[in-house]
Amino acid sequence: MDKIIGIITCNYRIDNPEALGRSYPLAALPFAGRYHLIDFPLSNMVNSGIRTVGIILPSMIRPVLNHLGSGKEWNLDRKTGGLFILQGTDPGIYPRNHDFVLRDLQKNIDFLENSIAEYVILSNCSNIVNVDFKEAVRQHRQTEADITLLVKEMVLTPEDEQVLLVETDRRGRAQKLVKAQGKTGQKALRFANMLIMKRNLLLDIVRGYQDIEYINIMDALEKYVSSLKIGTYRIPGYIGRIYSRQSFFQRSMEMLQPEIQKELFLGERRILTRSRDCPPTKYGPTSAVHNALVSSGCIIDGNVSESIIFRGVAIEEAARVTNCIIMKSCKVGRGTVLENVIVPNNTIIQPGIFVRGQPEAVMMLNINQTE
What is the largest CA-CA distance in the chain? Predict the structure, then answer.
């Protein structure tokens, strides 16, 4: 797909970002034991043959840059095309549903102007999905659409109040873009924060709104729904959205389901990530592990069930970890009991601690609870 470039926006916030740790922008949030959220859109683009990808950075750039490196793991350390690091605008002052702020593109308009690509794919980092953009682009060309929105049919929950819905005609053409307020329990097409459009059209929109502060591209598109051919591509299979601590926990626990693991990670299109060399995990004679994702470099002497354990975690004898996410380089002391808890990186939990959250109200362990 030489005529297509990708842009991934990392410069936006979620609800209560401190609930997932102030040290992470959403794009660099660890997921499923070894991945980061940016791995999903980046891998989807690379697996679809896109060889030029721009990353619009958040203000907290170091976690994202440390993870991406030169782009080698995604085959983007190239002389032609490759990985482009793009400057983001002032973050944190617009709502979380503003994933494609035009000012981000205005600051990097040379990236678009210097390209000879015909199309641009825009994506954010909030979706856990393995999608083939080649199929979406094929449909985009066949229907001669100006813009194609990637969508997913879903039953709306109370947490989906701010998502953007797409109302279509029988041909799948977008007729209206609306917010989901008041539609809980209804089945609708949710915009999946990914879209395909002609590069020249995107440039026209970016230039046309250069004097307007922080307008979202989706807000700008609302006035063009009747005049442009805006199609939709329905994403097959699993897609999970992360927008809060609770949704992060729920999406993580869904990774324990074999059918979802197989679809996301074991097919022909692999989710790529930066490799980390660690020794195999050591399971002691007193350990017991049931239905858990345990990364390399761990030492497990306690009981682990229905949990996700990141690299370098030590769980001592008689400790019990149930329905938890334990991030990298943590230590769970002897006799400690954790249920429905997220433990951030490098946390040392003293022996005998008891912490229990609820599946619908997961707890985030803080440093004061480990002493």
Answer: 68
200, 182 Cβ separation under 8 angstroms: no
158/143 Cα distance (integer angstroms): 34
* 183-207: pLDDT as tens digits: 888 899 999 999 999 999 999 999 9
Query: How are beta strands 35-36 and 30-31 bridged, if at all?
Result: antiparallel
- AA identity, residue 138: R
pTM: 0.94
Coil vs helix vs strand at 63: helix
Please, what are the domains in the chain?
4-265 (3.90.550.10), 282-370 (2.160.10.10)
Integer Cα distance of 298 and 18 in angstroms: 27
> What percent of the chain is helix, strand and coil (3-state, nearest 5)?
25, 30, 45
CB 20 within 8 A of CB 106: no
- H/E run at residue 220: helix 217-221
Backbone angle region of 203, left / alpha / beta, with phi > 0 → left and psi within -120 to 50 → alpha: alpha
Contacts of 44 (CB under 8 A, 6+ apart): 123, 129, 130, 131, 132, 133, 269
| Rounded-to-integer distance, Cα 62 and Cα 208, Å | 33
Average pLDDT, the chain: 90
Interval 118-161: pLDDT, tens:
999 999 999 999 999 999 999 999 999 999 999 999 988 887 87
Strands 187-198, 119-123: parallel, antiparallel or unpaired by DSSP? antiparallel
